[in-house]
Amino acid sequence: MEIEQVSQESQEAVRMEDACLDFGGGAGVFDLNLSLPKGSITGIIGPSGCGKTTAIRLINGIYGPTSGEVRVFGKKPLAYDAVDKAGIGYIPQHFILYPNLSVEENMRFVGGIYGMSASECKAKIQPLLAFVELEAARKRLARKLSGGMQRRLMLASALLHDPTILMADEPTAGIDPILRARIWENFRELRDQGKTLLVTTQYVGEAAYCDQVAVMRNGRLIVIDTPRGLQRRAMGGEVIHLQVEEKKLTKCVRFLEKLPQVYRVERIPADAEGLYVLVEDAGKELPNLLSALKEEISIVPTTAEPYLPSFDEVFVRLIRAAETSQAVEMVP
Which residues contact 241 (CB under 8 A, 6 or more apart)? Predict the structure, then answer.
């Protein structure tokens, strides 16, 4: 058992076990259980105030837990020495670099904080500015950069000392979709280089860019899974989208609900002819359902296709399920 535990820890960058930070009055984060595999992107998604920033500050050692345990590469963050801290890169929500220094000067300053020599900084700055596409702005004052450029400067600065793990707190907040996509390209490149990333975001659609996603609500993690796993959890299986003539819809629903391979049938509120059919494997069952509908009740859908719900829809369903579960638990 001990050998198995050591092997597991060797594959993890971060482990949180029942970690709590109780500010009192119901504020804080509670019972966080989260593992970040090395060389992966983990996203924490949830509404403003749900505890994403507090969770990330527990991991980077700004706060210590009031109970439970947090370990980063097997060590408690509060016990980190200077060498340990150099293994962590952190991008906070708000721009914290010096507005009256240029892009290049800010990066030299950050390098000095980490004890890097002038020659080390010079060697690292040029490729990092190329990586975040800020080469042309290297002499521009930070206060004259757009919000998106400031975010990219913070990313380059956080990478200057070559950290093993990068934590980014809402790095794409308030910037346009094109720049958001570029930043996520940067993150995926870093992941492919072997770095471990933890990214918080309010943009639910960004779940698709992560290897695993943790959904938070009211200071608690309500589910952790792969993006595809979240879709299955939220919908209760894989989904087939059918459109059937409205006058035949009731007959179609009754027939489908009796089939053993069908978990559930949902009518689509905004589509009078639309159905979601929940099954184990949409690709496998689609031709079987179409054949059964045609041969047994003479119905041929006008639309029949596997359906992947948007992550906005997934998030709403997961949050509603969590709220319903909590309401049930509170009933005496």
Answer: 274, 275, 276, 277, 303, 304, 305, 306, 307
The reply to whether 294 and 163 lie within a common domain is no
Residue 114 pLDDT: 83
Q: Are residues 8 and 86 in the same domain?
A: yes
Which pLDDT score is estimated for 327? 42
The answer to whether 73 and 83 are in contact (CB under 8 A) is no
Q: Do 267 and 304 share a domain, yes or no?
A: yes
Residues 118 and 213 in one domain: yes
Structural domains counted in the chain:
2
* Bridge-based pairing state of the strands 41-45 and 303-307: unpaired
**Structural domain boundaries, residue 15:** 2-231
Give per-residue pLDDT as tens, 90-127.
888 887 788 899 999 999 998 888 888 888 888 889 88
Residue 28 has pLDDT above 80, yes or no: yes
pLDDT in tens, 212-238: 999 998 899 999 999 999 999 988 899
Looking at the structure, tell me whether residues 207 and 99 fall in a common domain.
Answer: yes
Nearest to 199 by CA among 9, 14, 29, 62: 14
51 sits in the region (left: phi over 0; alpha: psi -120 to 50; else beta) called left
> In the numeric block, which tokens belong to residue 296?
């047994």
Task: Show contacts of 108-117: CB within 8 Å, 24+ apart.
Answer: 110/157, 110/160, 110/161, 111/160, 111/161, 114/86, 114/160, 114/161, 116/160, 116/161
